[in-house]
Amino acid sequence: MQAKKASYSNVKGYCLQRDHSYFNIHIIFTFFSLQIIFYEDRNFQGRSYECSSDCSDMSTYLSRCHSCRVESGCFVVYDRPNYMGNQFFMRRGEYADYMRMGMSDGIRSCRMVPQYRGPYRMRIYERENFGGQMYDLTDDCDSFVDRYRMSDCQSCHVMDGHWLMYEQPHYRGRMLYFRPGEYRSFRDMGYSNVKFSSVRRIMDLC
């Protein structure tokens, strides 16, 4: 018996139970309701839009977006549509002015970060299309140079977990959010001529 893929948006809980004459299997998946509220203007003014899932183009709902309030969960927001451009990781809290975060154009798209319990596995590559040096990670790495003598990372394969990769060592500078999947070129995500130097697991209980 196979569980159907569960939607992460507004799901309180999901349970699969299988009973067999030789064994019992109880698998429980628990998801939490995630919610972020976007506002047209700074300081939570103007029209608003409540979101609890991925949104590839905010202009469908708001002509502009310059502040937000994360009611629950964690989200990654982008300054271009279709999850492109500069990215920012947001925990529960209030964000009254994106200008203070270095986001001059406001939010254009967002992804929710689902709660995750399990192993973390990522394979990083020095060059695009999985070329050059290759290393497997199962934990945070604050400097690719110090640990692997690898000065750059331009592609990766995420097997398990959710990760944030940073432009500078010690988790500083511009960042990229990765969920499970293959990423052959970071240029396809709107980052060209940018070197990446550190990565950490998203383990926040937002």
Descriptive tags:
206 residues, mainly beta, Gamma-B Crystallin, domain 1, 4-stranded antiparallel beta sheet, structural constituent of eye lens, eye lens protein, Beta/gamma_crystallin
Looking at CATH, the homologous superfamily of the largest domain is Crystallins
CATH topology of the largest domain: Gamma-B Crystallin, domain 1
Number of strands: 16
The computed structural class is mainly beta
DSSP strand (E) fraction?
over 45%
Rounded to an integer in angstroms, the radius of gyration calculated over CA atoms is 19 Å
The N- and C-terminal alpha carbons lie at a distance of: 32 Å
Sequence of secondary-structure elements: EEEEEEEEEEEHEEEEE
Q: Which strand order do you get reading across the main beta sheet?
A: 4-3-5-8
Count of domain modules: 2
Query: What general outline do the C-alpha atoms trace?
Result: globular
Specify the CATH class of the largest domain: Mainly Beta
CATH architecture of the largest domain: Sandwich
Main β-sheet description: 4 strands, antiparallel
Give the fraction of residues assigned to helices. Answer: under 10%
Pfam families: Crystall
Family: Belongs to the beta/gamma-crystallin family.
Organism: Cyprinus carpio carpio
GO molecular function: structural constituent of eye lens
